[in-house]
Amino acid sequence: MALTAVVRIPTRALLRPWARLRDSALGWMEPVGGVEVSTQRFGSQRVLVEPASAAGVAVMTFKNPPVNSLSLELLTELVINLEKLENDKTFRGVVLTSDCPGIFSAGLDLTEICGRNPAHYAEYWKAVQEMWLRLYLSNLMLVAAINGACPAGGCLMSLTCDYRVMADNPKYAIGLNETLLGIVAPFWFKDTLVNTIGHRASERALQLGLLFPPTEALQVGMVDRLVPEDQVQSTALSVLAQWMAIPDHARQLTKNMMRKPTADGLLKKRDEDIQNFVSFISRDSIQKSLQMYLAKLRQKKG
Ligand SMILES: CCCCC/C=C\C/C=C\C=C\CC(=O)SCCNC(=O)CCNC(=O)[C@H](O)C(C)(C)COP(=O)(O)OP(=O)(O)OC[C@H]1O[C@@H](n2cnc3c(N)ncnc32)[C@H](O)[C@@H]1OP(=O)(O)O
């Protein structure tokens, strides 16, 4: 269903983005002459994008049941939809969240890295790199609304955001648990974590494959705020409203200054990183570990 209403924002608010927050706080909603803001919902099969009620904000919802694993299709759709949002200059901030009850994302899709051929591994890894680079360097303000379990690649995705709000439910956990699967978090996963929680905490978390329950995740700095489950998205939106008060150009240049050196680490050797991944993941011993892990996951129900 196309929702093609058009809202007009006064040009002065676009030139002074922080004015929008103040204006809307004063109850300003009058459509007056200015720049058109599309309120059209768009997206694709696995990624839904809906403009939020606040101007300039969208909610991107992942819906790849049962666990939002990052399949090649989901990664591709994510990048395409992010690009659409970035090209539409009316959007300044995005909340990333999940449509799968109790799960933000189960991380990389294990069926993409288990029992396939080297060409597939290479294609898949390129898509994982692309997702990370696009999110990590996005000019948009990104807030993760973590409404469920958030292991491995799911955690990585949330770490690319500028702020993380997590549901305060001890059933959920977040972390880079790769070693538990017998695999190794690549250097750029590691760098993203180090940039978030520091070197010592990362070293411990990565070696032990720690999955932190919400309270511990908050303590270590992996997430920024815990709220009751039904307030995760609304809190993420109100955090975005605060960030929107900062002039875009200054915030974007600052974000880029903080993140570009880390992203350059991968940009300089993308092909080498793909080759490393393909040769690592193709090893018999690694494939066996992954098969055993998948089998355990599948047996859980039986
Ligand atoms: C030195 C050189 C280094 C080079 C670099 C080398 C390697 C790096 C390589 C890879 C990095 C990988 C990072 C990753 O992201 S790996 C994925 C890790 N993910 C996990 O460990 C999470 C596993 N899943 C879970 O823990 C639970 O499923 C979860 C808590 C998310 C949800 O639990 P719930 O009980 O609700 O659901 P389940 O019954 O467990 O699952 C339902 C269904 O989904 C399947 N499934 C779960 N997770 C995945 C997954 N990640 N990929 C694919 N499929 C998944 C599960 O098997 C069930 O399937 P079925 O039984 O219904 O068929």
From TrEMBL:
Its EC number is 5.3.3.8. The keyword Transit peptide applies. Pathway: Lipid metabolism; fatty acid beta-oxidation. Pfam families: ECH_1. It catalyses: (3Z)-dodecenoyl-CoA = (2E)-dodecenoyl-CoA; a (3E)-enoyl-CoA = a 4-saturated (2E)-enoyl-CoA; (3Z)-hexenoyl-CoA = (2E)-hexenoyl-CoA; (3Z)-decenoyl-CoA = (2E)-decenoyl-CoA. Transmembrane segments: none annotated. Key enzyme of fatty acid beta-oxidation. Able to isomerize both 3-cis (3Z) and 3-trans (3E) double bonds into the 2-trans (2E) form in a range of enoyl-CoA species, with a preference for (3Z)-enoyl-CoAs over (3E)-enoyl-CoAs. The catalytic efficiency of this enzyme is not affected by the fatty acyl chain length. Belongs to the enoyl-CoA hydratase/isomerase family. This is Enoyl-CoA delta isomerase 1, mitochondrial. It comes from Hipposideros armiger (Great Himalayan leaf-nosed bat).
